[in-house]
């Protein structure tokens, strides 16, 4: 049996990535694609790399008949997402890729996103979509909130260490490098090729990046106390990829063992042999996350490096993995594509 | 039933690409991987992006037991390829990715590759692997010679036009742009990142590029007379991709119709609407080739632009497509992966 | 004695490049910088790479007192440029970098730029700014029109050949590759890093690119008859650089000799030894143009490749070279910076 | 009066960068260029971007007559450098760009570079070439040891803070991103374009990078106790540039003031307004270093980001700056070139 999916906001990069992945998924077919500003256009016109697929044309959300839809992927900007989802049928399964349902606490949402949440009851219902840590809740959920792409990367590196009490919670430094596609397709001067090529810079420094809301919520919950990590993202001239370098205080071997043991059975999380560190190009185009651990000549200091593809495992791949769970399909279906290198 | 494949020369980019593609192919499994200089290493060490796959370790060719192998992909350097293949079992199906069996005429081989061919009888047996034009011969073949990646791109643009007598055979200019992975993983100063980044240059100008041997052979055979095109490749700072701009004398609409009509039923060749031209990023990571046609304000002049991924449709994807035919499998099996963009 | 310069439209790339070049020029100082949308900002805020310079803040054009200005560089969008210049003092020396004064014929301007010219008398007064071919006119001019960057590159390759009657005027194919900074700092979806990186595509094909107006005007004037070349630009993922591959019918050695002889005394135009071809990275950041010539195995066919930096020799460097002439300064002053490689 | 310079090892990137800079220096002329493997070739053949300069051909070191040479720049590999310099005239001024004379302690040299030093007396004589901190010693020196490019960047960020006792010496984390040209022109598989493009990875992690020897020596000397920082470099796909993100414990405002005050009069070191952070593209092609400071929501944590061009301020520009001092020339001569952006 094939499940019908709608993708709302299909004219952005995460929407296109969903289409790419679902294209080889045997159990899901795309029944509707919305893209308000590009309504009426063929998906192959907006994204010529998808032109070989037999897809519905882009439409407006209000034109979609949701009665035959089993699951909706919502790849809309935050704030718009909560408004749209509030109007969708109450029994429709939804995977939201925006930031709207990641933070359970309304005050936290307003703090990081600048205005009150307009759909509080939905926010309470939503399950945080970090698959490997909320698998059973996701399986039972109607509404799953995709995580931030940076947030996923860092959590894969750190959650098992916090859970096991292996590291100093007051001294976690995460220096993150991320690719340009994470900024989406919106027009900003500093996202032009001529500005990004041959450049690297730190942004949202000083504890101002919105994904910190997710770290605060998740790490504090695990630790049972407030945890505030240092987190500085740097934009690097690559299309896809996030690489997080996490500097922690704790025993390197214990850290490595905790990660290797926790992720040993996970199909998409791969812990490298001790001392080996991953590169972005090892995972691009795929749903895998590679994690490496190194000690230091300074005793008790450990470096954990995690890397994944922001559009896939960090966003649309995660969404499809969660959708598989919600639909009762094998979790890895449509997601075992090998990375593309070089 | 699953077919067993060996990949000889698996430590290069085309070898790795074969593994990537076969990884999601339901009917072929990889039984052996050779890589002489890296024999003994795990494939995941040589190519960490393939580390999630359950693969045999790299070995030396002489360590492979070919008795259980149904098909061998030979991704070795030219000259070495003919020597190795001559020693393989005479009933083994082989897809060769080197240049060794592309030219039927021994003199032509020596002219372009600088020494006489050492396995003439095999050369005579080999079928030229341009799938869309040699499909039936390939289906029946034991030894198929993969085409040059540039050669494939330009032939997709021009063959139907020459067949139909639509263009002036004495005035064909092909200006080609290709990505860096086409040069393989061998160490050359001018392939270093610092030399290639931010640069574009023409190489093998003046009718000296070896793929001209393929053009001469194929175009002359179609036309029934000698055809000598002008062909200048330019290296551009991208990893994957070939984009050929072919300037011909002929009616633009007739050219477009000939291509659209010839390729209408082809699963991997896509002719765009008249006047629209493709970009490399529309096909990267996939087995598709996109072709566009434009007229000019100068009457009777036509531009045909074709683009494909040199490692996939230009090499390993083509090889797998041919292997599917040789093994009696559906031609598109394992090859319908959508391009990865951005 | 130091000359005072104003730069109008200094918040774009060509404006910034003018500042970079003039920064080391001993005879010119920058007295005013305009940038309407960024008026009030320091230049070092808009362009942090210029923050070490002691520069006037950006202002609105109407705030500039032109009484003490010796020369104005006008780096405004076309159409706006003619309106602004018409209001400037009638005795002010002006180098215009827009397209507004390149075409002498009003009908041609309207044909390529879509509306009638609003300052016809200025258009008649303007001298075409291709320094090496209009040197004496530029020296005497009040208003010099900078050439298109693509237009300069191709003219350097072809003018001496047309002048000498060495090539077939009805069969000139120019396949051009250019860097992204040529599109300026304006916001377009297809100029985002994620869209341009790893991509190459042809645009303005079919004889529609506006620089054709310059080719028509200049080549026809030289030849004494209508000349219509084929010209297709391709965008490549580099910041700076234009590389034009010109396919002509004519004797290769004669072509090489004509170029070498014509440019032998030119400080910025460098003809390579016969058979050697230049790369973009040989000229980036400088005012040099490198030109190479190759023959072909097809007798009578010749490839001329010219490359320059679009922001420097193709635009702001050319403008400064012309300003030097107009101000009676040594032509190469401030322009002998070596290219930056790698 | 013009000083004569020899550049030993001119066929590498730092040698070419020295030539680029000296080309516009009014007080130094290049009298000899050595490059053993390319001896006999013109510099313009090895580096076409320098072809417009009137330069001596590359020769072997033993062919140079040092009697007329005022200063030698030695851009040779480490170990070779000490052997060559030991044979040069004892009164020749020398700026060495290798690692051979950076570490004063012989045991440290052997520890980091794997074999004993062969010219200990020279090592004792050498002055560490971090201009802004050893200016007077350099002015008086005969032999100056250029610093590591990463080492310079991090020291610019941290020295004033350690001097002023503003930060916790036991908790300094430096996450560094550097461009590919830092690896030089030597042939390594992982420096190929296809391997580096679209990738970021950490290398020499765990306290194994050789530049740590410089940090240990310098920071411990300033602090009067052992200081061991954490330092992890990451390779990013840019040609030129180092960006060091230094996470320290100390008051952000005090840190900013210490840097701003210490560097206020320095011509090449620029401290940005508090809270603003620099990007690599702000300094590429120049001798400038930009430094920014940010606080954090976590009280008492400070981020210092420093960026410079590894080939210029990190290597050849520093060398020329030191040579200016050694020759009694103005320190900034030949070095005020503005960065090239975009």
Automatic annotation (TrEMBL), chains A, B, C, D:
Tell me the PANTHER family matching this sequence.
Answer: N-ACETYL-GAMMA-GLUTAMYL-PHOSPHATE REDUCTASE, CHLOROPLASTIC-RELATED (PTHR32338:SF10), N-ACETYL-GAMMA-GLUTAMYL-PHOSPHATE REDUCTASE, CHLOROPLASTIC-RELATED-RELATED (PTHR32338)
This protein is called N-acetyl-gamma-glutamyl-phosphate reductase
- Which organism's genome codes for this protein? Limimaricola cinnabarinus
Task: Please list the reactions this protein catalyses.
Answer: N-acetyl-L-glutamate 5-semialdehyde + phosphate + NADP(+) = N-acetyl-L-glutamyl 5-phosphate + NADPH + H(+)
Question: Which pathway?
Answer: Amino-acid biosynthesis; L-arginine biosynthesis; N(2)-acetyl-L-ornithine from L-glutamate: step 3/4
Question: What does this chain do?
Answer: Catalyzes the NADPH-dependent reduction of N-acetyl-5-glutamyl phosphate to yield N-acetyl-L-glutamate 5-semialdehyde.
Write one Pfam family the protein is assigned to: Semialdhyde_dh
One GO BP on record is:
L-arginine biosynthetic process
Its subcellular locations are: Cytoplasm
The segment(s) forming the Semialdehyde dehydrogenase NAD-binding domain are: 4-141
Tell me the active site: 149
Top enzyme class, one word, equals oxidoreductase
């Amino acid at each position: 049996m094939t499940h019908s999916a709608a993708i709302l906001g299909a004219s952005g990069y995460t929407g296109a990535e969903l289409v790419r992945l679902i294209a080889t998924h045997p159990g899901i077919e795309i029944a509707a694609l919305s893209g308000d500003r590009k309504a009426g256009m063929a998906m192959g016109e907006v994204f010529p790399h998808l032109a070989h697929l037999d897809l519905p044309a882009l439409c407006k959300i209000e034109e979609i008949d949701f009665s035959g839809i089993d699951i909706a992927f919502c790849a809309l900007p935050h704030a718009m997402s909560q408004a749209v989802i509030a109007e969708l049928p109450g029994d429709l399964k939804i995977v939201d890729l925006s930031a709207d349902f990641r933070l359970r606490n309304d005050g936290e949402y307003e703090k990081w996103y600048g205005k009150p949440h307009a759909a509080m009851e939905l926010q309470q219902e939503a399950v945080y979509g970090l698959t490997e840590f909320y698998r059973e809740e996701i399986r039972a959920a109607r509404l799953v909130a995709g995580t931030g792409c940076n947030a996923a990367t860092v959590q894969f590196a750190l959650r098992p260490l916090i859970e096991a009490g292996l590291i100093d919670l007051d001294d976690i430094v995460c220096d993150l490098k991320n690719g340009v596609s994470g900024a989406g397709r919106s027009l900003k001067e500093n996202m032009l090729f001529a500005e990004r090529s041959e450049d690297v810079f730190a942004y949202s420094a000083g504890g101002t990046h919105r994904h910190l809301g997710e770290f605060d919520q998740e790490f504090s919950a695990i630790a049972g106390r407030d945890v505030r990590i240092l987190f500085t993202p740097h934009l690097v001239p690559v299309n896809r990829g996030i690489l997080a370098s996490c500097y922690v205080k704790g025993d390197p071997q214990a850290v490595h063992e905790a990660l290797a043991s926790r992720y040993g059975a996970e199909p998409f999380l791969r812990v490298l042999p001790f001392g080996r560190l991953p590169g972005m190009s090892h995972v691009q185009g795929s749903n895998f996350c590679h994690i490496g651990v190194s000690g230091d000549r300074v005793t008790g200091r450990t470096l954990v490096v995690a890397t994944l593809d922001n559009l896939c495992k960090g966003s649309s791949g995660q969404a499809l993995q969660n959708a598989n769970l919600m639909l009762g399909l094998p979790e890895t279906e449509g997601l075992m594509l090998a990375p593309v290198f070089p």
